[in-house]
């Protein structure tokens, strides 16, 4: 009885399963056919309306837009509409097609770049259409030189300024916004990460990175923005003195941090500075090994002068710096350096009073010499004039005597002639 019961129970179930299976097969075949027909249908090109980014943002404003490049790198195509609207380009009502000039309809032309870097380099000349002045500045920069020499990783405009979300940098008066100022090191760190690590720990970098202090210099404060020079260039070396002086001779700025503004004057007054200035004025392109600011203070790792490990106000640390150029320098060698301060009664008092002694002695000696020589010259002239006048008077006397003698002789001759005539008569 159980055997027959199972037989009649499973028979209708098997029929149902068979019908369902056939339905799935038929549906699958129909879907494949429809997909094939859909792929076979041509896509009608759609031309974008001029003066409107809506068509572009309709697709690219959606997250997750990615395509694969020939080397299988992903090319991310999504653009955040809000970030673009807040960017400098968005606020200027720039159109997508102003930069992507080869795209004015859908489907787009095929991407020919083999990788993301090649795709980026295709737009390296696009920025100069609007930013010709800035582009011209980059022409002689170290970045452009590296790019022209074949270094495809050398930065172009878009590596520093993302065209889709670049924030406004300056206000209407040309002053840089605080947020933009603080972001400068982060931009440079994309390529120069090791240098950034040194800078972030320096007295300059810590002020910007950790404290947000806009008084501290960022990368562009020393290297400029678009006209970045080769730091190995001799001209950069000798001009770096003025670069440091731009901040360190600013009285209002240095007063805030109790720093001397006499750094340039004291440097130029010594052997190092005098030589460097002569090179800058007469031979800026010639190599020189004379010490400039960063030879003693460091480059990206500058520390406070009283830092126990690296500050050069510490005699032992300064000694190490001196021996880099003066290997035979002894322990007392750094003592001759007075620092960037003019001697005063409170600082280097002995030097201060010796200087004053010579300031008084030298004019006194020279003044006495002038007086002595002046009086001597005066006496010589006076004597010469006196002797000349005496000679003149003597000459006049001699002339008078001669004339008197002549008159006497003439009188005598006249008398003789008269007497002779009388005798004759």
Descriptive terms for the model:
two-stranded antiparallel ribbon; 4 strands; two-stranded antiparallel sheet; elongated; disordered N terminus; mainly alpha
First CA to last CA: what distance?
225 Å
| Major sheet strand order | 1-4
Order of helices and strands: HEHEEHHHEHHHHHHHHHHHHHHH
Q: Which regions contain 5 or more consecutive residues with pLDDT less than 50?
A: 1-11, 29-42
Mean pLDDT: 84
Radius of gyration: 47 Å
The global form is elongated
Proportion of residues in extended strands: under 5%
Secondary structure tally, helices: 20
Number of strands: 4
Measured as a percent range, the helix fraction is 55-70%
Largest sheet data: 2 strands, antiparallel
Task: Give a brief rundown of this model.
The chain has helices spanning 2-40, 54-60, 81-86, 88-91, 96-99, 116-121, 132-138, 142-148, 157-160, 178-189, 193-201, 203-209, 219-223, 234-248, 251-256, 263-269, 271-282, 293-297, 315-325, 349-424; strands spanning 46-47, 66-68, 74-76, 105-106.
How would you characterize this protein structure?
By secondary structure, the chain is mainly α. The protein has 20 helices and four strands. The strands form two sheets. It has a two-stranded antiparallel ribbon with strand order 1-4. It has a two-stranded antiparallel ribbon with strand order 2-3. Helix 10 crosses helix 11 (193-201), helix 11 packs across helix 12 and helix 16 crosses helix 17 (271-282). It starts with a helix and ends with a helix.
